[in-house]
């Protein structure tokens, strides 16, 4: 009986690997459908009797036949788990094959019916494509699990202790590589398998991948592409996509180029790339009344941490404590408590809360607008940290609209391009969502996106060739969901497909007036507010005024 219970539990767990408990398979499932799935997953493993199996059968039947037909993969998964449960029960209770043959026949006919459903789904997908046409997908994801970027003086875990991913600080771990590979599979599931938008095999003209100039984001991009285009099921051709009959070449590995820019001047991928203007704006933030008041409230905690860590801990560098402690809990949970006796969960929660609040200031999450000498510091900070990236996303969509049916040679690259991916950081993803005004609504429960969290911006055309955008979110590495969050954006009126002009207006609002290399050298304290165009307009006004005298 014990072995029987274990086997049934494995069936449950296999299904849960497809449907995490408490998490919807798709945001499009109705509440009643979600309850049916949860009810099916939460079977009582102790009731290994025929009565239990009959009850299990009924639950499976309800789920299989009442779920919307568009959830074909879910229905097939449930069908397989149901059949496994029956087979295990039969073997454990000595039932004859004849007694169960009718169930095999039922299963066969069910699978035939599901194949018909898949065909119908393809037809419905085609009908949807006739209504809306997908032109471009831009993806941005946070890297996977990594080693700390730095640590505090008294930390017993030094850089030499971090041997994963090549060793040292700031490296992607094997766990992070796996997270990104799984994300790549999930992305393929949506854009290759479901929407039939991206090609089944890698195409350099249709796919472009860019990473910031750090090992963890570059290796994350490589791992992600292995998930999308490096699996046996992808049916790549030896001799065409990778070397043929070459001893030592990793099976089915298709090399995909990852592009990058110099880190200090990558204003698109790095919100905190070198920028004097941002530094001066941040100084205004740290000197503000709100921040100073908060600093006073946590002063005792900071003093206590300084004693424990053996070094000064500025409020805006609390990550030097929080970052290593967070990661050490993952990789050295037992050793952390043994070698850092002052560490406990209650203290960590306080550190984490202080980190979240301080990080929030970087994203202009103030209790009230921060105005200094007439300057909206929060707005200017978002313009510097997120404006370049947001506007590049917008520019790509406008360029795609200009080029998708053009024969102009200048459009050769963008006309073919379908997928532009950014392998970046939590700060990049969250700053983008903050500019959309949905950061706090989407990233739950923490402030910043978790490992392998991802955002997607889709560009669509309707029948009249009017452009729309759809923003989707993938919350973390344990989720199997990619769901639309567009309806949360102000101006989208609760719709999944939003007028592209809404995106354009946000981009314009946060667009730096001049190229970033020049903009970063402007002084926010200047009367012109660092705006060269304003100064130019004033000069033109003066010139016109005097020429009319």
Automatic annotation (TrEMBL):
Species the sequence originates in:
Cylicocyclus nassatus
Q: What is its EC number?
A: 3.1.3.2
| Protein name from the UniProt record | acid phosphatase
Which Pfam families does the UniProt entry name for this protein? Answer: His_Phos_2 (PF00328)
Q: Which residues form a coiled coil?
A: 284-311
The first-level EC class reads hydrolase
Citing just one GO molecular function, the answer is:
acid phosphatase activity
Question: Per its UniProt record, what InterPro entries does this chain match?
Answer: Acid_Pase_AS, His_Pase_clade-2, His_PPase_superfam, Histidine_acid_phosphatase
Q: Which reaction does it catalyse?
A: a phosphate monoester + H2O = an alcohol + phosphate
The portions of this protein that span the membrane are: 105-124
Q: What family is this protein classified in?
A: Belongs to the histidine acid phosphatase family.
Q: Which PANTHER family match?
A: ACID PHOSPHATASE-RELATED, PROSTATIC ACID PHOSPHATASE
Which keywords are on file for this protein? Coiled coil, Disulfide bond, Glycoprotein, Hydrolase, Membrane, Signal, Transmembrane, Transmembrane helix
């Amino acid at each position: 009986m014990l072995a029987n219970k274990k086997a049934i539990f494995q069936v449950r767990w296999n299904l849960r690997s497809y449907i995490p408990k408490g998490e919807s398979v798709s945001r499009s499932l109705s509440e009643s459908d979600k309850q049916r799935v949860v009810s099916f997953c939460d079977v009582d493993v102790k009731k290994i009797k025929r009565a239990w199996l009959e009850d299990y059968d009924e639950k499976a039947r309800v789920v299989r036949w009442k779920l919307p037909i568009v959830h074909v993969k879910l229905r097939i998964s449930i069908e397989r788990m149901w059949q496994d449960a029956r087979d295990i029960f039969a073997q454990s209770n000595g039932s004859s094959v004849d007694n169960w043959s009718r169930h095999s026949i039922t299963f066969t006919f069910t699978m035939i019916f599901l194949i018909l459903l898949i065909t119908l789904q393809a037809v419905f997908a085609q009908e949807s494509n006739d209504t809306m046409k997908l032109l471009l997908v831009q993806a941005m994801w946070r890297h996977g699990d990594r080693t700390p970027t730095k640590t505090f003086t008294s930390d017993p875990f030094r850089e030499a202790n971090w041997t994963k991913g090549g060793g040292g600080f700031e490296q992607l771990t094997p766990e992070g590589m796996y997270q990104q590979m799984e994300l790549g599979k999930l992305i393929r599931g949506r854009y290759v398998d479901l929407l039939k938008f991206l090609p089944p095999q890698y195409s350099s003209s249709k796919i472009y991948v860019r990473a910031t100039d750090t090992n963890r984001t570059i290796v994350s991009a490589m791992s992600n592409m292995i998930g999308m285009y490096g699996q046996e099921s992808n049916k790549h051709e030896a001799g065409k996509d990778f070397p043929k009959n070459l001893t030592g070449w990793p099976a089915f590995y298709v090399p995909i180029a990852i592009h990058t820019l110099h880190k200090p001047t990558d204003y698109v991928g790095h919100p905190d790339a070198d920028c004097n203007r941002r530094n001066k704006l941040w100084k205004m933030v740290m000197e503000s009344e709100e921040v100073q008041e908060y600093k006073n409230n946590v002063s005792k905690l900071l003093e206590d941490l300084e004693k424990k860590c053996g070094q000064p801990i500025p409020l805006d560098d609390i990550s030097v404590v929080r970052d290593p402690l967070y990661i050490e809990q993952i990789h050295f949970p037992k050793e952390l408590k043994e070698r850092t006796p002052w560490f406990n969960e209650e203290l960590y929660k306080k550190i984490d809360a202080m980190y979240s609040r301080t990080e929030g200031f970087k994203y202009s999450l103030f209790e009230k607008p921060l105005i200094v000498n007439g300057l909206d510091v929060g707005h200017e900070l978002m313009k510097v940290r997120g404006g370049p990236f947001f506007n590049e996303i917008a520019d790509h969509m406008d360029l795609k609209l200009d080029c998708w049916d053009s024969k102009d040679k200048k459009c050769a690259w963008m006309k073919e391009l379908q997928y532009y991916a950014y392998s970046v950081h939590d700060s990049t993803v969250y700053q983008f969502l903050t500019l959309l005004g949905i950061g706090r609504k989407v990233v739950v429960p923490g402030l910043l996106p978790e490992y392998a969290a991802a955002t997607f911006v889709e560009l669509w055309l309707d029948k009249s060739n009017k452009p729309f955008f759809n923003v989707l979110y993938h919350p973390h590495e344990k989720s199997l969901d990619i769901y639309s969050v567009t309806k949360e954006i102000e101006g989208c009126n609760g719709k999944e497909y939003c007028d592209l002009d809404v995106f354009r207006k946000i981009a314009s609002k946060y667009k730096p007036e001049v190229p970033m290399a020049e903009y970063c050298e402007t002084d926010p304290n200047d009367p012109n507010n660092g705006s060269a165009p304003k100064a130019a307009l004033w000069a033109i006004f003066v010139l016109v005024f005097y020429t009319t005298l």
